[in-house]
Design a protein that fits this description.
Blueprint lengths: L2 H7 L13 H12 L10 E6 L2 H10 L5 H4 L2 E8 H34 L3 E2 L7 H8 L5 E10 L13 H4 L6
Antiparallel strand pairs: 1-2, 2-4, 3-4
Helix pairs in contact: 1-5, 2-5, 3-6
The protein binds flavin mononucleotide.
Flavin mononucleotide (FMN) binds next to loops.
């Protein structure tokens, strides 16, 4: 699939068919993620693949009861190792680059999923501490996104975007 087609076709999917996603497909998504750019090629990302129903239920609970998370056959929790980034770039690495790098990896997952006919949603609204505890995420690492992955059971309409004329600034802001 052409990259522009994948970009345009991607939607946040919040309903999933009761169909499994094979592990090799999940690894394909993470393969796409690891080719994202990162500051100094530090690659501060870590990926936790969750299939256990009870763990998914607790993730949904930590995400302010966004129950569609537990309905997906698989959930990828994407983490940023900010200590790794800090070793290269100090506080800018810890507070900015590690989040930017990880966000780029997350977007690659979403786009690869579209090309594979899978549905995903970027869930950022969750309480970090319960997620850290549940998934045994070590100090120095932050969970950044919860991504439920499955076969889409809905086809949402595109949500509006701000027009180019409003967001492009030429020469100065
Ligand atoms: C950083 C971030 C956090 C988000 N958090 C949530 C979330 O917690 N729950 C949710 O349902 N969607 C979440 N979304 C998805 C957005 O609501 C969605 O991308 C936006 O409404 C545009 O719709 P589209 O993705 O279908 O184009 C998040 C997206 C981003 C980038």
């Amino acid at each position: 699939m052409d990259v522009f087609e994948a970009i345009k076709r991607r939607r946040s999917i919040r309903a999933f068919k009761n169909v499994d996603v094979p592990e090799e497909d999940v690894e394909k998504l993470i393969e796409a993620a690891r080719w994202a750019p990162s500051a100094g090629n530090i690659q501060p990302w870590e990926f936790i693949i969750v299939r256990n129903p009870e763990t998914k239920r607790k993730l949904a609970e930590a995400a302010l009861n966004q129950s569609f998370i537990e309905e997906a056959p698989v959930v990828i929790v994407v983490c940023a190792d900010y200590e790794r980034s800090a070793r290269g770039y100090g506080s800018r690495g810890a507070t900015l680059y590690c989040i930017q790098d990880t966000a780029a990896a997350i977007q690659n997952i979403h786009l690869a999923a579209v090309a594979m006919g899978l549905g995903t949603c970027w869930v950022g609204a969750f309480r970090e501490e319960p997620v850290k505890e549940l998934l045994k995420i070590p100090d120095g690492v932050r969970p950044v996104a919860i991504i439920p992955v499955g076969c889409p059971a809905e086809q949402p309409k595109p949500r509006p975007r701000r027009p180019l004329s409003e967001i492009i600034h030429r020469e100065v802001f």
